[in-house]
Design the sequence.
C-alpha cells in the first residue's frame, strides 16, 4: 500500500471514525453506515487539502471520488 | 347562491388559471388530465405494494415541529386560526409528514411503503411555477437503508420512462434542497456527495424550469425524530418520491394540447 494511502487510512480509522475495535479497509465504502457526518466530511476535506497542498473545489466532492479510502487517494493524493 | 369566481385571474396555460398569489384552477380536459395523472400514480404505487392512506389537510404544529420543519423552512408554513378549535394547526406543506406521525414511537415489521395524496401549501416564491396551494402525490418508504435506496432507484427509472412516453422535455438531476436545512457547508457537501435528492425538472409554458417530481432519501432524519425503528430496535430509514400534479399538467400542456396529453397519460403503465 502506498504511504499516502496508508496515512489517509490511519487518519480515517484513528481520528475520523475512531470506532474502538473496528477498522475499515482501503476498499470499505465510507458513506453507507452514517459514520461520516457533516463535521467529519469537513475534517476529511481539510486533511486532504493539507496533504495535496491545494484547495478542493466543492464540485469535486462527489461519490465517484469519495467512495472509499482507495478511491479518495487515487483522486486527491496523486498516486 | 352566488357564482364562484377567482379574483383577477391571470391566463397561465390552456385550461388553467392561477391568481397572482398562486391559487390554481382548471377545467375540462385539463382537469381530467390532473385527475388521470393522479390515478395513474396511485395505481402504480398500489401495484408496487404501497398501502393507501388519506390524511387531513391540516397538520398539527407538534408534528411539524417534531420534523424540524420550522428550522428547515420557517418561511413556508401557512398557519390556520379559528376561534372555536383548540390547538395550533398549519396547512400541510407535504403529505409525507402525516406518515411519520402515523408511525411515530413504533417498531415496524420489515419494510413498508405508503401512498397518499393531498393538498399542500407553501408560501414561498411567488411566480407562475410556485403555487401557494397544490396537489402532491407521494410514495413513502420505511425500512432498511438498502430497501429505501432501491425503491427510490426503481421509481426514478419508472418516472424517467414515463416522462419520455409523455414527450416531456424533462431531465433527472441531483438537487440541493432536501427536506432538512443545509445550514452549513458540511451538511451541504454531505448531501451532495450522498445524492440524497434528485429532481425531475421540466419547463412550463413560459419556459421556466421547475421540479415536477422529487426522489428523496431522508436517511434516519425522520425516523430518529419520530422514534420509528425496525424489529429488534434496528435503525429504520425513510425516503419518499413526490409528484406535484399541477406542475406535471403545466409541463405537459407546454408541449401538447390537453386532449393529446390526456391520451398519453391514459397509456401509462
Sequence:
Amino acid at each position: 500500500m502506498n504511504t499516502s494511502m496508508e496515512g489517509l487510512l490511519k487518519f480515517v480509522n484513528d481520528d475520523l471514525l475512531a470506532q474502538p475495535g473496528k477498522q475499515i479497509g482501503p476498499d470499505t465504502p465510507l458513506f453507507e453506515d452514517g459514520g461520516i457526518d457533516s463535521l467529519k466530511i469537513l475534517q476529511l476535506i481539510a486533511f486532504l487539502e493539507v496533504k495535496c497542498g491545494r484547495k478542493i473545489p466543492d464540485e469535486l466532492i462527489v461519490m465517484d471520488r469519495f467512495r472509499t479510502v482507495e478511491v479518495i487517494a487515487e483522486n486527491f493524493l496523486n498516486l | 347562491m352566488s357564482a364562484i369566481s377567482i379574483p383577477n385571474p391571470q391566463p397561465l396555460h390552456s385550461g388553467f388559471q392561477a391568481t397572482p398569489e398562486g391559487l390554481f384552477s382548471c377545467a375540462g380536459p385539463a382537469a381530467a388530465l390532473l385527475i388521470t395523472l393522479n390515478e395513474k400514480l396511485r395505481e402504480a404505487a398500489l401495484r408496487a405494494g404501497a398501502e393507501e392512506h388519506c390524511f387531513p389537510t391540516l397538520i398539527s404544529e407538534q408534528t411539524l415541529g417534531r420534523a424540524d420543519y420550522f428550522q428547515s423552512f420557517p418561511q413556508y408554513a401557512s398557519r390556520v386560526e379559528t376561534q372555536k378549535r383548540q390547538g395550533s394547526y398549519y396547512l400541510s406543506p407535504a403529505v409525507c409528514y402525516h406518515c411519520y406521525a402515523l408511525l411515530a414511537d413504533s417498531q415496524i415489521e420489515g419494510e413498508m411503503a405508503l401512498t397518499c395524496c393531498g393538498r399542500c401549501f407553501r408560501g414561498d416564491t411567488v411566480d407562475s411555477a410556485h403555487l401557494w396551494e397544490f396537489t402532491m402525490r407521494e410514495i413513502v418508504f420505511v425500512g432498511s437503508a438498502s430497501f429505501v435506496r432501491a425503491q427510490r432507484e426503481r421509481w426514478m427509472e419508472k418516472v424517467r420512462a414515463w416522462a419520455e412516453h409523455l414527450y416531456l422535455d424533462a431531465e433527472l438531476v441531483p438537487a440541493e434542497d432536501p427536506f432538512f436545512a443545509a445550514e452549513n457547508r458540511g451538511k451541504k457537501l454531505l448531501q451532495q456527495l450522498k445524492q440524497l435528492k434528485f429532481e425531475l425538472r421540466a419547463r412550463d409554458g413560459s419556459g421556466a424550469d421547475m421540479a415536477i417530481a422529487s426522489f428523496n432519501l431522508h436517511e434516519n432524519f425522520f425516523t430518529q425524530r419520530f422514534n420509528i425503528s425496525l424489529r429488534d430496535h434496528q435503525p429504520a430509514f425513510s425516503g419518499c418520491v413526490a409528484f406535484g400534479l399541477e406542475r406535471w399538467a403545466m409541463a405537459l400542456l407546454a408541449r401538447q394540447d390537453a386532449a393529446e396529453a390526456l391520451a398519453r397519460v391514459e397509456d401509462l403503465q
